[in-house]
Each structure stands twice: as structure tokens, then as C-alpha cells.
Amino acid sequence: MTDESRYPVPDLPPGGRFQIEETIRRSRFIATAARASTPEEAKAFIDEIRAEHSQATHNCWAYAAGAPGDTARVGASDDGEPKGTAGRPMLTAILHGGVGETVVVVTRYFGGILLGTGGLVRAYQGTTKAVLEALPTKPREVFVRYVASLDPTISANFEHVLREAGGKVLSTDFRFDAAYEILVPEDAAVRFESLVHSISGGEALLDRQEEFAS
Predict the structure, then answer these.
(1) What is the CATH number of the domain that holds 133?
(2) How does pLDDT run across 106-158, given as a tens digit for each residue?
(3) Rg of the Cα trace of the chain?
(4) pTM of this prediction?
(5) Which ranges constitute the DSSP H helices of the chain?
């Protein structure tokens, strides 16, 4: 696996989120962050937050669904705030925050005091930076999925080799041969294949499937 593919991403469970809240001149700003590996995932999360805070004055958002700083799959919205005061500053914070595959929604409940253009930019960008700084992260990992078929007599050795490679078993079937569906870290895949070939005398079948990011 290349260093470029092993960048920080939010360390959250599936469907998880991370949230902070600040009060700025009586307005509540609630910044909620999640992992979004695709624009579709980001938009689904935005819709979820907007539904939860349907009574809020604004639900401004931004996302970057790639590596840190990558602008290929990004989006942003001011959601009714003056143009350029929310979505774009939020996106700038995400792109420079050092964390990839991230979506942030900043919900505002208006407190009765106008912040002005500069104040809004500082509020939305500041709360986005704050949630990103506190957000738990982990290195993005890429796995290769295999379907393996081998003699049951070497299944213990196979599982040992798999553990040494940092892989994991998704499913097994021992009705005929020993059949496995497994994930192996991309950077260990070539050596893993070689070791399986060695312990099986070239008899094991390893069908390499798609890559899987985690």
C-alpha cells in the first residue's frame, strides 16, 4: 500500500458521528462530523442532520470525500446564510485539516444578534476547525478480498499465515474443501500469496477480488 493511500480518516463506527457545540454571541453552533468515502455518503449524512435539526435557522455543510486536500469530490452549502460566509470557509477548513473522507454540518440556532459577514466566516470556519481538531482519527487501510479454497489438512497453517499478514476471516465453509472469504492488507498481499502457495505446494486456490478500504 502506498503512503498516499494511508491517510488519516475519522475513527468512528459505521453510522457514527462526532460533535461539538459552541455559543457565539447567543447563537448555538453545533458542528457534527462523520466519515464520508463518497459524495453519496456525505449527502445522506447531511440529510440526516438536517432532518434532526429541522427547526434550526441554518444547517450549513461541507465535505471532501477523498484524501486530505483533494478537491476532486467536494461540496459545500451556505444554506441561506450570506453567500460565501459558511460553506466555503467550512470546506477550506476541511481541505486544510489533514483528515480525509470527512463531512461536517454546522447547525446554527440564531440567538438574536447579527454577526456580520466576517463574524459568520469566523464562526463557521472556527467550529469546523474545532470539530476536526477533536475528531478521533485512524490511518486509512486498504484490504484485498480473497476467496480461498484449500485442503482442510493445511487450514491451521493457512489461518496462521493469515493472522501473521494482519488479515481477517469473513466467512468459512468446510462442507467440501476448506473455503474461506478473507481480507488481507494490500501491503501484505503479495507475501501472503507467496506463503499460501508455499504451504499448499501450489495446490491452494486464491481468487483475488476487489479492494476494500477501511
Answers:
(1) 3.30.230.30
(2) 999 999 999 999 999 999 999 999 999 999 999 998 899 999 999 999 999 99
(3) 23
(4) 0.76
(5) 39-52, 87-95, 116-134, 155-164, 189-199
